[in-house]
Amino acid sequence: MTNEKTKETKQAKPPKEMVKLLVDGREVEVEKGSYILHAAEKLGIRIPTLCYYKHVQPYAACRICTVEVKRGHKVRYVTACNYPAENGIEVVTTSDRIKAIRKLIVEFLLARCSKVKVLRELADELGIKESPYGYGEEGCILCGLCVRVCNEVVGAKAIAFAGRGIDREVTTPFKVDSERCIGCGSCAKVCPTGYIKVASTEEDKIVHRDVTLGPNTAIYVPTMQAVPNKPVIDTTSCIYFRNGKCKICAKICPTEAIDHEMQDKEKEIDVGSIIVATGYQLFDPKKTMQYGYGRFDNVVTSLEFEKLNCAAGSTGGKVLLANGEEPKSIGIIHCIGSRDKNYHEYCSRVCCMYALKFSHLVKEKTGAEVYDFYIDMRSFGKGYEEFYNRLLEEGVRFIRGKAAQVSNEPIYPEEEGKLVIRCEDTLMGRVRRIPVDMVVLCSAIEPRDDSPELARLLSMCHTKDGFFAEKHPKLAPVSTATDGVFIAGCCQGPKDIPDTVAQASGAASQAMSLAAKGFIEIESATALIDDKRCTGCRICNDLCPYHAIEFIASDKISKVNDALCKGCGTCVAACPCSAIAARQFKDDQVMAEIEGVLA
Amino acid sequence: MIRTWEDLQEIRKRGAKKIHPDKIKIAVGTATCGLATGAGDVLKAVREAVEQCRLDAIVAETGCIGYCQKEPILDVCIPGFPRIFYSEMTPAKAKQLVEALAKGEHKPEWALGKILSETNLIDESVFNYTMEKAPIEIAKIHNLNDISFYKKQFKIVLRNCGMIDPEDIEQYIAMGGYHALFKILTKKRPQTDLIEAVKKSGLRGRGGGGFPAGKKWETVYKAPGDVKYVICNADEGDPGAYMDRSVLEGDPHSVMEGMIIGAYTIGSNHGYIYVRHEYPQAVRKFTKAIEQARELGILGKNIFGSGFDFDIKINRGGGAFVCGESTALMASIEGDVGEPRPKYIHTAEAGLWNKPTNLNNVETWANIAPIMARGADWFASIGTEGSKGTKVFSLVGKVKNTGLLEVPMGITLREVLYELGEGIPEGRRFKAVQTGGPSGGCLIVDTFGWKHREYLGDTAPPAVSYVTESLIDLPVDFDTLTEAGSMMGSGGMIIMDDTSCMVDIGRYFLNFLKEESCGKCTPCREGIRNMLSILDGISEGRGKPEDLDRLVEIAQVLQDASLCALGGSAPNPILSTIRYFRSEYEEHIFHKRCPAGVCKALIRFSIDPEKCTGCTVCVKACPENCIEGKKQKPHRIDEPKCIKCGSCQEVCKFNAVVIQ
Question: In angstroms, rounded to a whole number, what is the distance separating the alpha carbons of residues A451 and A466?
Fold first, then answer.
């Protein structure tokens, strides 16, 4: 949706008409159609404003930007934010009269909103200590920025002015929660006084599933270190895609790189080899109903907990409960969906170590009590066992035994308002109930739902557990049954980051070696179709497991791609008119071999 | 459908028959001012009586002839008699009158005046009534134009008001209506000619500002664009002003004719009239006028077969005073909140929906047809150097004759007050004239105003001596009024006597504006609020010596920095009262006294024991039961309990209740 702005679309704009005027005695040239404020800005002359914002139409309501305009002998007091810059006018931005006007306006506004910071600053600038007109506690200065942004930029039209004269106020229609409000927060963003606060009309709580990495905006860089490191627009949240308005990002982008009209594109790329690194998906812990995921707000998966932990995440790295409080105790349950005959029999390999990392971080950040429920502690690898020993010293409570249930039904007073984990402590030899504030489920790593489809597409095999199968576990761990297709990472089987990087490096070098060589070696025994006998029935096309046979429409015959053919002989056997022969294994050759053996 | 001059004359003849029929015609003035005094019942009574007496008469309705104080007014035309207007009718009197007419008798004692001949303003044709059958007592009735209220009037805008049935287009045509339009359209008079005529006539916008109409028309005409609009501003909101209402109720076609001519001139096909919702009669009558005009082909496609298309839509305002401001009015028509926008680019270039727009006030539009018919020179010969033509004023307040009057520009306040208004009732003294509504100011008309202290027997010299001359001989036109610190406004003229407190008047207008300012710009919204709170302080005895300077300071900022004319002119009532009645303010601030006896915190009621006869009327009237006294013995007011409502003073026949 973003960035790709080709050179053709950047057309040269016609030169704008310019006007010349004098601001405080200095000549300045600005584009026709701009306002005095812009001309002053160009000269570096600051004119105070309250109701002006670059991306909405000037409103001229606060009148604080009043300046003096001289045209010939005629002097007028006008607002700089919307008086058009015209040829030959003389603008005076500070004079005794203007100061008096600004002073009185600020005094008026102070009398209404005595505590507003922007007004206080303006008052200091103008040398006002206290307003002689009173001391109001109002927060809104009625500049109308919120209303205009909501109407002009967002297009939601959820707020407007109501009442006339001194009864004027900003409100929603009929002063009830407006359905038109899309909760974009633009009004709060532009409010110069900070009077508008965005609040959820529903109960205010953190939904862990919605916690994202990075800031919550409609335009964002997908992940940290994303490649390419460029923002994308979320069309479901972006105001433009909801109301057809806003486009502020496009207005402020200095390189004009944002194009809201861009469509998704499909590209076909010819490549010599493919590395499949499609990763994994997390086991859905809702299937293990006994742990209450989805029922209890504070039961989260390991990935959700990781997002909470991330310093760039939306909680700023704070571990928080749904109600926004810090947990006092956390239970981490290992092997959810792994090492389990009902779901996946394999071990997900990484859970023990990240559970230990969580335990450490929680201890460090919150000082909460941490319970780790494990079957076996699998801390193999360099430095891992040492880390486990360190945690034992840090006071993390390790309970050997798989947790049986997470419930919210207290029996004992200390369990009131907590989640209770029931488990068998096999070391103590008894069943325990442990109350905690938050439960982290270490869900299994499992193959992605769409991996069978991908396997079919690339003619790869997969193992019983659904992960892609390598060509040979020891001799060809990154190759697949299809030449030129390599695998790396968790799509091949659960593994941690170091292992993944190692495997990926292997796959990459395999692919590189193919490219560096410049040619490929093919099987000597491939199938051969006799053009004269082929009737073009295309039975072989669909049968070939390597998609090596294609139909040549112009000649109405099928042809074998030697580079793909593995010489399996399926087509040879299936051809109804015996048009296909296997090289090196033609009938007469086989017969000759037999004769040779028998001779 | 009118296509030819003959068609028009045919209708004119029919209309004339309706105005001056061969039998008795009794018309009741049923404009809002009439209805308010019971014209509805009178009309009903007349209808019933006519039926009862089997009188062969036409009963009709008409507009207001201006003398609102004398409403309900009956206009009786009898063949062979002069036209007689009977005033202050009641259903009983109306019945008697009809019965008398049925017997061939008359009631000259109830008559307001008679008309012997009518001169048509448009083509100067004269209609003479005959006196052949009239008895001597009829001849003795005053001529309407000789009575003081009408003597100095010159009717252009109100030419047909009260003379014809406003709901009958034929009668308007009979008065020369749509003749000017017909000539312009069928002869295809060049637009520049028409603009030149308006410019030469010196017509200035009657809505308040007095902007030269011709100049505005020219700007709109020259502005590029195919789509242009004409708008009639009938959002009359000044307290005490009702000129536009009367014109729309009494003669809607005169406004419409002006609008069509204006539209043809600037090249517009769409017109709007913005009427406030509080004028239901005006809306109803104008709607009917539009329907009738469409039927005759005066509105719609191909008007008079000339190929020119124009139609008018009625837009009803919600009653916001600020919507009388042109840009706020346009915003309101567009469906937005009626808030003004800065006019750095004139509405004549970018108005309604950003198209060139010619907005004029009701009275301005009503002046157009006579200018076109009689020529610019004729119009320019009326009035003063800078302000041509006439102006309709609504004369209200403490004056004997109240009502609508149309006088040539340049008439002096003395003439209006003492001749048309016939002075002040009960021997009180004139103090001030307020013109221009909340945007205008109070003009001193009697030096008495600032001599209150002397009047009260206070011989000590005033804190600040401030002497000003009476403006009673001020000629009324746009420029003199502005110079004097007020403005013409739409034509409200409120007369105040010595019972009006100028601080209170200032408060009244600011209170009005406090709620009627749109609240968009800071100076207007907050300035009015703060000026009002200072004035409240003064009237409640908390006035401080620096208050006057502060009021003037705020007022000047409002004039310079407000977004629209409402804010810019909002301080006029305060500035003008300070200018002319400064001593009265000082009296409030320094001596904590209200010379006019209005500001409740500064006055106390007491009973003069010498005058009190002990009649106990005041005891019964007092809502707080704070008057004590036995029968036949002087009473006494228990001051701490007194809420200063003034009820006792109102009911006392012996003027024993005095304000100190």
Answer: 8
| B517 close contact with A: CB closer than 8 A | yes
Which domains are seen in chain B, by residue range?
14-151 (3.40.30.10), 178-380 (3.40.50.11540), 390-591 (3.10.20.600), 604-659 (3.30.70.20)
Does B552 contact chain A (CB < 8 Å)? no
pLDDT tens digits for B76-120? 999 888 999 999 999 999 999 999 999 888 888 999 999 999 999
Contacts of A35 in chain B (CB under 8 A): none
Distance CA A98, CA B379 (A): 44
Helix (H, G, I), strand (E, B) or coil at A435: strand
* CATH superfamily of the domain spanning A272-521: FAD/NAD(P)-binding domain (3.50.50.60)
Flag if A84 and B344 touch (Cβ within 8 Å). Answer: yes
Whether B513 and A164 lie within 8 Å, measured CB to CB: no
pLDDT of residue B460: 45
The model's pLDDT over A36-74, given as tens digits with 9 standing for 90+, comes to 999 999 999 999 999 999 888 899 999 999 999 998 888
Domain ranges of chain A: 18-126, 145-190, 272-521, 527-598
Is CATH 3.40.190.10 what the domain over A527-598 is classified as, yes or no?
Answer: no
Residues B585/B541, Cβ–Cβ less than 8 Å = no
B 281-310 residues with CB < 8 A to A: none
Which tokens in the block code for residue A405? 């249930």
Q: Which two tokens stand for residue B89?
A: 């009718």
CB interface of A with B, residues 320-359, below 8 Å: none
Is the CB of residue A53 less than 8 Å away from at least one CB of chain B?
no
Which CATH code for domain A18-126? 3.10.20.740
Mutate which: B321, B346, B513, B521, vs A, most A CBs within 10 A: B521
Looking only at the bridges linking them, the beta strands covering B430-435 and B441-444 are antiparallel
Q: CA of B323: which chain A residue's CA is closest?
A: A164
* pTM strictly above 0.80: no
Q: Are B485 and B575 in contact (CB under 8 A)?
A: yes
Low-confidence ranges of chain A (pLDDT < 70): 1-14, 200-216, 224-225, 313-314
CB of A140 within 8 Å of any CB in chain B?
no
